[in-house]
Amino acid sequence: MKAHRMQAGAFVVLVIATTLALGQQAPSINAAPNTVYVGAEGRFEAAPDTAQLQFNISPQEATAKEAYDHASRAADQIRHILRANGIDPKSAEIGYFAISPVYDWRQSKRKLLGYRVTSAVTLKLKDFDKVAPLVQQIADIDVTENQSLNYILENMEAAKAQAVENAYRHAHSEAEALAKAGGRAVGELSYGSVDVSEQSRPIVPMSRAMYAGVAAESTAPPPTAEFTPQHVVVTAHVNALFTLK
Questions:
Q1: Where are the beta strands (DSSP E) in the chain?
Q2: How does residue 213 score in pLDDT terms, banded at 50, 70 and 90?
Q3: What percent of the chain has pLDDT above 90?
Q4: Which ranges of the chain would DSSP assign to H, the alpha helix?
Q5: How many C-beta neighbours within 10 Å does residue 61 have?
Q6: Under 8 Å CB-to-CB from 4, ≥6 apart: which residues?
Q7: What contacts 119, CB < 8 A, 6 or more positions away?
Q8: Residue 241 in contact with residue 35, Cβ under 8 Å?
Q9: pLDDT tens column, 75-125
Q10: Phi, psi dihedral angles at 41 (to 5 degrees)
C-alpha cells in the first residue's frame, strides 16, 4: 500500500478579550482561522447642556372641585413665576393629571377625607443661572412637592456614538498590536457588537416639608451656587473580529 503523507495547512487564530469592570461577558463567537477577536471599552464625557427640573402640584381639599380649583390656582402661580423669569410657560410639560379620593384606612370602615389632585410637571432649561431662583420660588407654593433637579445632554445619541467610536479605536489599536507581535497585519472588520451605557445618578426628590426645614427664611445662597454641574458620562464596550493579512 502506497503511503501518502498529508500536510495540514497552518493557521493562526489570535484572540484577546478585555472584560468590563462589572463582569460583562463577551458574546460567544466561533473565531475563524486568520482572525483576531478583541474587546475594548470607550468613554465620552461632556458638560451637560440642559437642566431638567421636575415637581408635582398636589393639593388636597374636601371636594374634587375644590381640589381642582386649588390646583388651577397653583398652576397659574407657576405660569406667573415662569414669565417673571423670562420663560415661556409652554416650555413646561405636563406628564400626567389625576384626581383621586383620599381615605382614612385606620378604621374598620374607611372614611373619605377628601380629594387630591396630582399633576407632574417637567421643565427643561438651557440657562443654568435660572435654576436656583426657580427652585426656590416653586418650592414656596404651598402645594408643590417632590422637586428634583438633574443635568442632562439633550443629544444623547450623539454622545453614545462618540463613546462607540472611542471604543472601536481602542479595539483596533489592540488588534494591531497583537497582530504585529505575531508577524501579521490587521485587515477589515468581520464582526462587531456594541453595548452602551449612560452614567446613572440617583435623584432624591425634595418635598415641601424637607425644603421648609432647611431653607425657609434663609438668606444663604442656594445649595447649587457656584458649583459646576456634574459631567455626563457615556461608556461603550465593543467586541470586534478582524481578519488577518
A1: 13-15, 35-46, 50-57, 60-61, 92-104, 111-125, 144-152, 186-198, 232-244
A2: very low
A3: 57
A4: 64-84, 131-139, 156-181, 208-215
A5: 18
A6: none
A7: 56, 57, 58, 71, 75, 94, 95, 96, 97, 98
A8: yes
A9: 999 999 999 999 999 999 998 899 999 999 887 788 999 999 999 999 999
A10: -110, 150
- Return the C-alpha cell found at 168: 472601536
Residue 164 neighbours by CB under 8 Å, 6+ apart: 42, 194, 196, 236, 238
Give SS3 for 194.
strand
- Single-letter amino acid, residue 11: F
Please tell me the distance from the alpha carbon of residue 144 to that of residue 129, in angstroms, as a whole number: 21
Altogether, the residues listed in the chain come to a count of 245
In angstroms and rounded to an integer, the radius of gyration of the C-alpha atoms of the chain is 29
- What are the chain's domains? 13-46+164-198+236-244 (no CATH), 50-152 (3.30.70.2970)
pLDDT in tens, 126-167: 999 899 889 889 988 988 888 898 899 988 999 999 999 999
Segment 7-25 mean pLDDT = 38
Pairwise CA distance, residues 169 & 240, whole Å: 11
Q: In this structure, which amino acid lies at residue 225?
A: A
The closest alpha carbon to 161, from 204, 130, 196, 212, belongs to: 196
- pTM comes to 0.65
